[in-house]
Specification:
heterodimer; A: 336 residues; mainly alpha; two-stranded antiparallel ribbon; globular; B: 290 residues; two-stranded antiparallel sheet; 2 strands
């Protein structure tokens, strides 16, 4: 515990606890709409953090993370619908399957020296391969979609994940906090330092005796496995899955926006980015709605402009300069 | 299924593949010289396609004739993008360049969605349903014209790089960045020119493809990926490789559509990509990087 907290300035710890406490009591005051927005924010914070393990920590750019979300979602949904297996048990298959997908991509890429842009394109190609594959996979509905039975939300069934938004809110909050803690532990472990060495200079890392292949494989597999629970959450929260939605490249891009805007490789970046981006996008949607404009695509143009502005003016994201301004820079060399 | 059906489908795929090749040629030229991967390539092609559709709908201007002005507009767009946006990113890490262009692509595709809506639009020319018959072989007139135009544009580009001083200067930048600076070449301007040439290729290809493809804004990312697949298959930076890759992918897609189902055809293109990345990562005609 003391190791976990070491290096966090008191002010930072207080702010973090205050934020967490605020999020804990929010459902007491918030209406359903605000709650659904917060669920969306925490969802993006979670998947952004999972992606961050691969790109932010180990420096491997994936543009196909929708694949792992989709594999998790379809696995748990199929087990639930076909065999009545609860999603918590479904996770036990969803995570290994996503890990296997990540490991196959990683193995093919790293063994054969596919790196940089080529690696990113390989991840897109695999996600697209699965999108088209699931379009023709009629056992889980094909392109017509796959639907979970929706019942009246009179009672929350935590075991079968059938319930009202408040239940889903607490689940995704718990997931996000757990992943934040896990990532902090990882980043300050031997594994984390190896990853940073690989990210900064892979040749130098290898020269120091780090088995770069092995640690890149761990990063890809772990990131894939951590993304899968978000897919399970997605399936049971939205109750419908379409390959064109779940596996689409637009989803893969969407889920990397929060960490990029917040700060790639930082622990709080994905969370900050998710709050800023989703919060602003929802505000924009509401404003447009208030003026009677219903334009599909407006939100995405906004995302694009945000991404453009951040990558040009704040290439390391918003969190690092904000952290400095708040006087929260960690003691003893937190990366970036 | 009679044998000539296979032949006809294969020839159709080959002709489409030549246009794909021209599109990919643009991506390859940009990467070969500027060393930036244009992630907005397909999106820029859809812009060209909508230009062709608007010109046809408003003034009945044939896309094949409008190919030249459309390519010129796309040249200007590419030039401005490289000069204004990408040049400052030349020395930044690869993933930042990538994300910059992802942002541009995101804006382009959704701006098109806002302007033109999600429904498919197409161009119906007087020769849309014409065909040429050579014995049992039947060839769509639109595809034949488009393929011929693609060959002409590609040949012009080859000649430009081979025989003009400007083309030689651009090749010098590609071969040796520092050397080009030393001999006094204005590398940034040459980069902008190259990016413009690449996007002009994709603009010309877009004007040809509207003749036989229904256009939606969602095509942008699809063609970006297709261009990547083709260029990696043929060899990044290799101009003949891009054309060869285009023909190969065009042929594969056409035959996969016939043997299986048309909606699954890109799975086969991705399959080829994975095989190439594994067994010949430099591409069919690419040189092995040291």
């Amino acid at each position: 515990m003391s190791r976990l907290l070491a290096g966090i300035p008191l002010r930072g710890a207080v702010l973090l606890v205050a934020l967490f406490a605020g999020l804990l009591v929010t459902p007491r005051f918030a209406g359903d709409y605000l709650l659904t927005v917060l669920i969306l924010i925490l969802y993006f914070a979670y998947v952004g953090q999972a992606w961050n393990v691969m790109m932010g920590f180990a420096g491997q750019l994936s543009l196909g993370h929708a694949l792992y979300v989709g594999v998790g979602a379809y696995t748990a949904a199929a087990l639930f619908i076909k065999f009545g297996i609860a999603p918590w048990i479904g996770l036990l298959l969803a995570i290994p399957l996503a890990v296997a997908c990540g490991a196959v991509i990683g193995f093919l890429a790293f063994r054969f020296g596919v790196a940089g842009v080529y690696f990113a394109i390989l991840t897109i190609a695999f996600a697209e391969f699965f999108r088209i594959g699931f379009d023709h996979f009629s056992w889980v509905g094909g392109s017509a979609g796959y639907f979970l039975p929706v019942t009246q939300y009179t009672q929350n069934d935590l075991w079968r994940l059938r319930g009202n938004p408040t239940m889903f809110y607490y689940i995704i909050l718990a997931m996000t906090v757990a992943l934040l803690v896990l990532c902090r532990v990882l980043l300050h472990s031997r594994l984390g330092y190896y990853w940073l060495a690989i990210r900064e200079d892979e040749d130098a890392a290898r020269a120091l005796g780090i088995d770069t292949f092995r640690y890149k494989m761990i990063a890809v597999s772990l990131s894939a496995g951590l993304t899968a629970p978000a897919g399970v959450f997605f399936a049971f929260y939205y109750n419908n899955l379409f390959p064109e939605q779940v596996f689409h490249i637009a989803r893969s891009i969407e889920l990397i926006l929060a960490p990029i805007i917040g700060g790639v490789g930082t622990l709080f970046g994905p969370i900050l980015g998710a709050f800023l981006l989703t919060g602003l996008a929802e505000t924009l949607t509401n404003l447009l709605h208030a003026f009677g404009v219903e334009t599909p695509g407006a939100k995405q143009v906004f995302y694009g402009v945000c991404l453009l502005v951040v990558i040009i003016f704040l290439p390391h994201g918003i969190w690092p300069p904000l952290r400095r301004a708040l006087g929260l820079d960690p003691h003893g060399g937190e990366p970036r | 299924v009679p044998a000539e059906i296979y032949l006809n489908v294969a020839v159709g795929g080959l002709l489409t593949g030549l246009v794909y090749g021209l599109m990919a040629l643009g991506l390859s030229v940009i990467f070969g010289v500027v060393r930036v991967v244009n992630f907005a390539h397909g999106e820029m092609m859809t812009i060209a396609m909508y230009l062709a559709i608007v010109l046809f709908a408003a003034f009945k201007l044939d896309p094949l004739v409008m190919m030249v002005p459309i390519a010129a507009v796309l040249f200007a767009l590419g030039y401005v993008m490289q000069a204004g946006l990408i040049n400052p990113f030349i020395n930044r890490p690869e993933h930042m360049q990538f994300i910059l262009l992802v942002a541009v692509a995101l804006i382009m595709v959704n701006a098109l969605l806002i302007i033109f809506g999600p429904d498919a639009q197409s161009v119906q020319t007087s020769y849309s349903f014409d065909s040429f018959a050579f014995g049992p072989l039947i060839m769509d007139a639109t595809k034949a014209y488009a393929a011929a135009a693609a060959i002409v544009v590609a040949a012009a580009l080859f000649a430009f790089f081979r025989f003009t001083p400007l083309g030689t200067a651009i090749r010098a930048c590609a071969d040796n960045y520092a050397g080009a600076l030393v001999v006094g070449l204005d590398v940034k301007r040459l980069y902008a020119l190259t990016f413009g040439l690449g996007t002009a290729c994709v603009g010309a290809a877009g004007a040809m493809l509207v003749l036989f493809i229904d256009v939606t804004p969602a095509l942008g990312p699809v063609y970006t990926l297709l261009a990547f697949v083709i260029v990696i298959t043929g060899g990044l930076g290799s101009m003949p490789g891009a054309l060869l890759g285009g023909v190969l992918i065009g042929l594969t897609e056409a035959l996969a559509g016939l043997f299986f189902t048309p909606s699954a055809k890109s799975m086969f293109a991705f399959g080829i990509l994975v095989l190439v990345l594994l067994f010949r990562p430099q591409g069919l005609l690419g040189k092995r990087a040291s």
